[in-house]
Amino acid sequence: MKYDGIIFDNDGVLVEIHRSGDVYENAIEKLFKERGITPNEKDLKPFLYNKSSKKVKKTCEKYGLQTHEFWKEKEEVTFRLQKKMILDGYKTLYQDTEYLNEINLPKGIVSNNQQAIIDFISNKYMSHSFGAALGREKDLRGLDRRKPNTFYVKKCMNQMGLENPLFIGDSSADIEAAHNMGIDSVFIRREHREGYYVTKSPTYEIKSLEELPEIVH
């Protein structure tokens, strides 16, 4: 099948996954404590794992917090932490991204990470030209528009003028988003995805981007 472009997820596909341990949890817990609140583990989960806006609002209402302001502050804190990790040498490009040079198709990025982080990574690392590089907005709309929602995939396709792209991801959310858009997908089973169950069957499965040129040529 002839594809007119390729859309990539970012973390775990183009850029290495970095396990931050308790760094995020401690930073978010500090935000609560600065307001005299000691949250339990259940209250932290919507902020740690970017759950739906309904769960974020429920926790904020429980403690009398201004939901949108508190969420934006959380996003800014986690942006600064991720930026520091990148500057410290973590979250670098996978070596096999060099094989993208063999693919003469328009390329885009759609990530569930923050737009500010995608911009920062693109400016620091990316030697490839991406027609669009999209992450989520800092407000709660961005939270609910993440994959498997098709909002950003559709936006990327529109910006790049694509009708039949191939989507490359490393999570069920990625593959479901492609399925929801009616486009083909590739699941890349890197080391951090060994044994991972994919909820929708991808069109292709690979272990390295080295295998991608053969699929699209």
What's the gist of this structure?
This protein is of the alpha/beta class and 217 residues long. 42% of the residues lie in helices and 12% in strands.
CATH third-tier fold name of the largest domain? Rossmann fold
Tell me the structural class. alpha/beta
Question: What percent of the residues sit in helical stretches (DSSP H or I)?
Answer: 40-55%
> What best-fitting shape do the alpha-carbon axes yield?
globular
Low-pLDDT runs: none
Structure report:
With 217 residues, this protein is an alpha/beta fold. Helices cover 42% and strands 12% of the residues. It is built from nine helices and six strands; from the N terminus they run βααααβαβααβαββα. It has a six-stranded parallel beta sheet. Strand 2, helix 5 and strand 3 form a beta-alpha-beta unit. The longest helix is centred in the middle third of the chain and has 21 residues, at 67-87.
Features of this protein?
217 residues, alpha/beta, Rossmann fold, 2 domains, six-stranded parallel sheet, 9 helices, 6 strands
Topology:
Elements: E1 6-8, H1 23-33, H2 41-48, H3 53-62, H4 67-87, E2 107-114, H5 115-125, E3 132-136, H6 140-144, H7 151-160, E4 166-169, H8 172-181, E5 185-188, E6 204-206, H9 212-216
Parallel strand pairs: 1-2, 1-4, 2-3, 4-5, 5-6
Helix pairs in contact: 1-4, 2-3, 3-4, 4-5
